[in-house]
Inverse folding.
């Protein structure tokens, strides 16, 4: 008998009375797609324009007001909620990176999806791993219950693939800079993967003509001048031969990831076994386009039309394979548009922990860096500070941050430790509760700095990086959550739900029992074909 992986078995329901009633004829393949930076405002705006893949999904059950409820609206925490049913406070993925002063290596900054215990792993050139994910994914739980099921992921970003598939993946692929690569070196090579990689190399080696904007996008073509001399807003995503950066800022990258997804379905015969399989797909181009150009220009418009088309082709390929599949699509976070286009202020660079730390060092006569962390996020006191010095430095840091006109709130570790992880409608959570939802006592900073609504977390625009996300405000938190299966009654739901609700809902769809006490999400009732277990 197979021994259940300890991590997953701890989350299984042991009492038969609490097991869910399996829905009749569950689908054989669950495709879970995360579109990086696809905020709810983008979905709402483009919904009438979609004619292909996203139009199909919009004809299923649409939760317009999904939330990545936590304050830390970054890629890694966001992806960690989708397939675990849990908030970052439980998944442990509190940010894209954090500081671990106890780490054995000299650089204490830790990437969310690395194993820093491996000597070759550095913050910049890390060894990809699910080590930091503290909970199992639905795929992990499914594999423990039904070893014949496959748990497969492919994404543009490694952290998307890792956080959605988890600890017991059969295949996991992500873009390694020039081709799709895997951290699962022992897994068998699917025959189509090298074929796709070779085709991509040839494709990227050839210059691509600018995309032809449809009238809806042409109407958005208004150039916006930035302080660094660049102009964005009216781009058409063409690229020079061999320009790998521009490839990632185009729908072609999503097309490539979806081609990989289709190849994995074919090669591994996903959806054809007795037990259901899970395929997680992370589409990252929307995030690259959004960072490079913002979310309201012609460039994002072309990305939206391209994404719709690529998804449509992917679903047609699955249809042609005659598979009984269901699709869930959401996002890891939204975004705030380009500050210069919407007239929003940019963050004062003086708010960076390093800058504030230098000021404190001068005032208090301390040697050393004093503060580490990110602007508008977790801030850490340097561990070299002694007891009394540390107390004075923290008091001074809190005073300086709280006095700054761009700061909405500074929340300390002590305050966060006192309150419970929030439950209920995420649209009603206070700022403190949002911060609690992405707080982990081992990994979070000594305090969290939350900037005022509208302040761009990016002090200065640069090439490829003009707009961003990461705030506790709804433009970064609100994301669509779409459920689709052939024959599903279309419905659009207005209530606020959390991306942590996705996992228990899929679990109910395929009849997998999940202990409600071990996750933060709840099964979303009222979706046709899905029977939620009795509470
Ligand atoms: Zn992201």
């Amino acid at each position: 008998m197979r021994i259940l992986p300890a991590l997953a078995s701890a989350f299984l329901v042991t009492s038969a009375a609490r097991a869910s009633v399996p829905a009749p004829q569950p689908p054989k393949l669950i495709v879970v797609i995360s579109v990086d930076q696809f905020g709810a405002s983008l979905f709402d705006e483009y919904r009438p324009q979609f004619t292909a893949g996203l139009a199909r999904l919009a004809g299923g059950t649409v939760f317009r007001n999904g939330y990545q409820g936590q304050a830390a609206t970054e890629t890694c925490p966001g992806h960690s909620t989708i397939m675990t049913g849990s908030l970052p406070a439980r998944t442990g993925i509190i940010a894209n990176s954090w500081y671990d002063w106890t780490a054995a290596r000299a650089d204490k900054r830790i990437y969310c999806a690395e194993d820093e215990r491996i000597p070759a792993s550095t913050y910049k050139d890390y060894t990809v791993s699910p080590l930091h994910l503290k909970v199992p994914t639905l795929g992990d739980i499914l594999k423990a219950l039904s070893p014949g099921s496959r748990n497969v992921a492919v994404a543009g970003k490694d952290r998307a693939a890792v956080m959605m598939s988890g600890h017991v993946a059969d295949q996991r692929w992500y873009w390694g800079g020039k081709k799709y690569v895997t951290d699962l070196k022992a897994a068998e090579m699917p025959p189509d993967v090298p074929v796709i990689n070779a085709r991509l190399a040839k494709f990227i080696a050839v210059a691509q003509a600018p995309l032809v904007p449809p009238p809806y996008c042409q109407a958005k073509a208004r150039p916006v001048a930035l302080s660094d001399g660049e102009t964005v807003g009216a781009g058409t995503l063409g690229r020079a031969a061999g320009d790998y950066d521009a490839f990632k800022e185009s729908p072609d990258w999503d097309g490539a990831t979806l081609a990989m997804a289709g190849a994995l379905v074919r090669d591994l015969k996903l959806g054809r076994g007795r037990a259901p399989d899970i395929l997680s797909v992370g589409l990252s181009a929307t995030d690259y386009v959004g960072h490079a150009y913002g979310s309201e220009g012609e460039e994002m418009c072309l990305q939206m039309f391209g994404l719709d088309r690529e998804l449509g082709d992917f679903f047609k390929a699955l249809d042609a394979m005659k598979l009984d599949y269901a699709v869930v699509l959401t996002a890891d976070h939204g975004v705030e548009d380009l500050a210069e286009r919407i007239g929003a202020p940019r963050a004062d660079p003086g708010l960076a922990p390093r800058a504030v730390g230098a000021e404190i060092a001068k005032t208090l006569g301390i040697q050393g860096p004093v503060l580490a962390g990110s602007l508008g996020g977790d801030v850490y006191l340097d561990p070299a500070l002694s007891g009394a010095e540390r107390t004075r430095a923290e008091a001074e840091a809190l005073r300086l941050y709280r006095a700054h006109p761009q700061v909405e709130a500074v929340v300390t570790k002590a305050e966060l430790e006192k309150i419970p992880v929030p439950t209920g409608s995420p649209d009603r959570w206070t700022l403190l509760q949002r911060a609690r939802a992405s707080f982990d006592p081992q990994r979070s900073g000594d305090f969290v700095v939350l900037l005022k609504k509208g302040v761009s977390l990016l002090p200065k625009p640069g090439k490829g990086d003009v707009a961003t996300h990461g705030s506790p405000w709804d433009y970064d938190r609100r994301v669509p959550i779409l459920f689709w299966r052939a024959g599903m009654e279309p419905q659009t739901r207005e209530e606020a739900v959390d991306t942590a609700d996705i996992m228990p809902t899929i679990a109910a769809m395929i009849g997998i029992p999940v202990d409600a006490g071990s996750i933060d999400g709840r099964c979303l009732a009222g979706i046709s074909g899905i029977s939620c277990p009795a509470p």
Notes: Confidence is low (pLDDT under 50) at residues 1-23. The CA atoms of residues 144 and 450 lie 40 Å apart. The pocket of zinc ion is lined by residues 36-37, 75, 78, 287, 332-333 (CB under 6 Å). The longest helix spans residues 298-320.
